């Protein structure tokens, strides 16, 4: 469902034909390489898989080749970075906050190497680093609108990976969206924690069942690879669930209402195009509804074939579209913290 827009492809093609680009590490010309490094094995992690697909699509559009290194832990992340810089690629694409410290270290150590970090950014951004983050609170708010309108118990909830400001972008915005259409809604927020916070379906399911027992009938899963557990609990308890990052509706048809989508492919292409054009780095770009970098499945062109339950509620979708327009226009402001 995540395809590079025809407009972006046309622009990139025009740039290539015009010969626009830098030199050395600043260019991604024909025959050059872009290396994508994950923070964990791709496996069934659709978010990491989308990063791989997005990097490959961007490389093709920019006349380069793509290579992927999968990591398993902090040591393998470091080893993969060491191996990548020795190949002198046009750019190294990293994904998630697990690389915050490492990318700062390597960017300082290798100032001629270009780096891209997706979905995170260190506090100090070296000149050879470009970060792409997501306004996750915007689509999460829209999911909350759906939950508030579909709710029957007066109680919504979130199971998130960690109790941190980063994950509260999802959980807090979800609750705010629900209260925007039903001020009497209460919410419960539970957090997986531990060493495998974003990949523990058993723990995620346990917490989801706890939330349901407390009265939650609309539950938002923000646990990465653990969301399968949230959806299992929702199906078992006959409540509705919401997913993240990619279209997760097919995982539990009739149970998953909608998803907060991160357009990793667009972010990777945009940032690699900046490198190709020789634009200065050292900055972060936040992608949200207005930038088409974050959205919900029901508002994409692939919504009709997504299998999402929300499609059975056109009246709710009309409210979601109105809320989206209000967010983009600045009529709705969503409080959030980025770190």
UniProtKB/TrEMBL annotation:
It is found in: Cell membrane. Transmembrane segments: none annotated. Residues 58-297 form the ABC transporter substrate-binding protein PnrA-like domain. CDD domains: PBP1_PrnA-like (cd06354). Keywords: Cell membrane, Lipoprotein, Membrane, Signal. One of its GO terms (cellular component) is plasma membrane. Residues 1-25 form the signal peptide. The keyword Transcription does not apply. InterPro entries: BMP_lipoprotein, PnrA-like. The keyword S-adenosyl-L-methionine does not apply. PANTHER family: ABC TRANSPORTER GUANOSINE-BINDING PROTEIN NUPN, TRANSCRIPTIONAL ACTIVATOR PROTEIN MED. This is Membrane lipoprotein TmpC. It comes from Nocardia macrotermitis. The lineage of its organism: Bacteria, Bacillati, Actinomycetota, Actinomycetes, Mycobacteriales.
